[in-house]
């Protein structure tokens, strides 16, 4: 029977069973079952005997290798997979890197890296959970990293928030850790990491490594997005048209408001869609808002 | 756009009034606002790193100081070498004349904006320009981990020297920025300018290399002179 799963080691999970320490394939199988609830499991406190010398250095070299690679990543997808493989060593399975929604803003246009289970993200954004989820609301008011369990009671214990965290757990997001970071595009950005385990023991060094990777990842993602959109500027008229479209006006109405012809309005909207490489005006509005090319 | 005046102990006499203003703002920000330092009766903030080895970039707009930066060669005592040497455990403590520690950068409270073209970007651009002029290869120091992304947003290469640690309950990290023409160009692009922000008056000793020795008291004296004049 599985007794301890130790996440204090940076590279491998070590599982002690009655038959001794297991290999990684066995461990993954056990972890999968543990997550399904068929095997009782417990997180162990960091094992001091196993975190000396080599492992300590590997934590640092892994972190600094990640930082080095961030200088070369050309797409946000590469940053996401690199970041995911790094945080898995700390027991995190899912991550999202996003601007923090404030004032009831929808989450979706703010997301920079999405490593959440697809179905969970769908549900979370379509039902606008961001507005009531205690973790998400706390993201808007603190600049310091925190565990989900550190979110103040009054935010975490509201019925809606408690229900959301119950649902999150069903998707394998049981506990988590959030690192806020400065952003020039959003109110602020956060890297939110989720784990399928109830308790998470991370040493200060491990937290430090995560905090550092978060800061670098946020900057890298924003600079990649910036580069990608460098040549993509809307003209003044295109922005104006898109701003009215964002308020739900039809092409006819916009033509009337701006005293221009309907075909001209359509041409402006078409150009906006092309600029952002999206197929709908709604998509163009979302991109323009996210990049702050227009505001409402 | 700011005029970024390069001030050292050798041309301080050109800047007596601005110097006084600068120290008073430092007191307002580092003593009263951030509470990093104990209050001083004379209302000026000075620390042990305000020596003739330090170079100051004073950002002036319409005759008023709105921002500033202090650069110290890392082969001389500096904040990280004296107080936080344990935070460079991965890359090692820098001790080279062409690595400059960059400290005491602030923007006056009423001039702070979230915009990318704000005063903060202007002083960063001026510091980068000065570093390239003087052959400084890296500039940096201790900073809050929270603010790390701002460098990448200027498309500057960041080189952390160790893992972050908690300093007064905030996660901080020692990180340096690579000085390059590309970095300057990127900052200028953000600001939408191609011209120099630096202004140099009077004697300009090289940053990298020996300086004539001037007593630290000169700087304090210059500050008191300003008070007498005022």
Sequence-ordered SSE layout with sheet pairings:
The complex is a heterodimer of chains A (about 300) and B (about 230).
Chain A: E1 2-6, E2 14-17, E3 20-21, H1 24-36, H2 53-70, H3 76-88, E4 94-99, E5 111-115, H4 118-126, H5 134-139, E6 146-147, H6 153-156, H7 159-170, E7 175-181, E8 189-195, H8 204-228, H9 236-246, H10 251-258, H11 262-276, H12 281-290
Antiparallel strand pairs in A: 1-2, 2-3, 4-5, 4-8, 6-7, 7-8
Helix pairs in contact in A: 2-3, 2-8, 3-8, 9-11, 9-12, 10-11, 11-12
Chain B: E1 3-7, H1 16-33, E2 55-61, E3 64-73, H2 79-82, E4 99-107, H3 119-134, E5 138-144, H4 149-153, E6 158-160, E7 165-167, E8 170-178, H5 181-191, E9 198-200, H6 217-229
Helix pairs in contact in B: 1-6, 3-5
Share of residues in strands of chain B: 15-25%
Second-tier CATH architecture of the largest domain in chain A: 2-Layer Sandwich
Q: Give the low-confidence spans of chain A.
A: 1-53
Q: Distance between termini of chain A? A: 58 Å
**Name of the CATH homologous superfamily of the largest domain in chain A:** Transcription factor LuxR-like, autoinducer-binding domain
Span of the ends, CA to CA of chain B: 27 Å
Q: What is the overall silhouette of chain B?
A: globular
- CATH C-level category of the largest domain in chain A: Alpha Beta
What name is given to the CATH topology of chain B? Aminopeptidase
* Number of DSSP E strands of chain B: 9
Per DSSP, the total helix count of chain A is 12
In N-to-C order, the SSE pattern of chain A is EEEHHHEEHHEHHEEHHHHH
Instruction: Indicate the structural class of chain A.
Output: alpha+beta
Estimate the global geometry of chain A from the Cα principal axes.
Answer: globular
Sequence stretches where pLDDT stays below 50 over 5 or more residues of chain B = 226-230
Regarding quaternary structure, what we see is heterodimer
Class per helix and strand makeup of chain B = alpha+beta
CA-atom Rg of chain B in angstroms: 17 Å
Order of helix and strand elements from N to C terminus of chain B: EHEEHEHEHEEEHEH
Helical fraction of chain A equals 40-55%
Strand percentage of chain A? 5-15%
């Amino acid at each position: 029977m599985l007794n301890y799963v130790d996440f204090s080691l940076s590279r491998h999970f070590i599982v002690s069973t009655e038959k001794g320490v297991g290999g990684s394939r066995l461990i993954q199988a056990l972890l999968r079952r543990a997550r399904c609830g068929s095997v009782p499991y417990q997180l162990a406190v960091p094992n001091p005997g196993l975190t000396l010398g080599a492992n300590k250095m590997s934590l640092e070299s892994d972190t600094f290798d990640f930082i080095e690679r961030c200088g070369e990543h050309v797409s946000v997808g590469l940053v996401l997979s690199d970041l995911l493989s790094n945080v898995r060593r700390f027991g995190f399975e899912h991550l999202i890197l996003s601007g923090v929604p404030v004032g009831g803003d929808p989450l979706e246009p703010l997301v920079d890296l999405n490593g959440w289970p697809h179905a969970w993200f769908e549900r979370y954004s379509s039902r606008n959970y961001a507005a009531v989820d205690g973790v998400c609301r706390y993201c808007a008011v603190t600049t310091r990293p925190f565990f989900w369990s550190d979110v103040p009671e009054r935010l975490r214990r509201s019925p809606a928030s408690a229900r959301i965290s119950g649902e999150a757990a069903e998707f394998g997001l049981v506990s988590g850790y959030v690192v806020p970071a400065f952003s020039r595009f959003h109110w602020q950005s956060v890297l939110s990491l989720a784990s399928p385990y109830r308790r998470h023991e991370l040493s200060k060094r491990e937290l430090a490594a995560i905090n550092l990777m978060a800061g670098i990842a946020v900057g890298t993602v924003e600079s990649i997005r910036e580069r990608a959109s460098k040549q993509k500027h809307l003209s003044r008229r295109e922005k104006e048209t898109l701003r009215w479209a964002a308020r739900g006006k039809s092409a006819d109405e916009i033509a009337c408001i701006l005293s221009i012809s309907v075909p001209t309005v359509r041409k402006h909207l078409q150009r906006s869609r092309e600029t952002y490489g999206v197929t709908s005006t709604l998509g163009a509005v979302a991109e323009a808002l996210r990049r702050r090319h227009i505001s409402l | 756009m700011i005029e970024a005046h390069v001030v050292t102990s050798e041309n301080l006499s050109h800047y007596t009034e601005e110097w006084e203003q600068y120290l008073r703002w430092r007191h307002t920000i580092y003593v009263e606002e951030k509470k990093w330092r104990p209050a001083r009766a004379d209302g000026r903030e000075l620390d042990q790193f305000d020596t003739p080895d330090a170079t100051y970039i004073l950002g002036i707009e319409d005759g008023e100081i709105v921002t500033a930066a202090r650069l110290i060669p890392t082969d001389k005592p500096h904040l990280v070498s004296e107080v936080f040497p344990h935070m460079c455990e991965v890359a090692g403590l820098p001790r080279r004349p062409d690595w400059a520690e960059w400290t005491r950068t602030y923007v006056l409270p009423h001039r702070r904006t979230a915009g990318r073209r704000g005063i903060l970007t202007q002083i960063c651009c001026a510091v980068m320009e000065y570093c390239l002029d003087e052959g400084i290869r890296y500039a940096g120091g201790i900073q809050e981990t929270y603010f790390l992304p701002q460098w990448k947003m200027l498309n500057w290469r960041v080189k952390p020297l160790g893992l972050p640690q908690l300093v007064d309950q905030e996660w901080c990290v020692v990180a340096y920025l690579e000085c390059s023409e590309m970095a300057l160009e990127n900052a200028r692009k953000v600001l939408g300018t191609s011209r120099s922000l630096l202004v140099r008056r009077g004697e300009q000793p090289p940053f990298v290399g020996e300086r004539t020795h001037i007593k630290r008291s000169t700087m304090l004296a210059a500050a008191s002179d300003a008070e007498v004049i005022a």
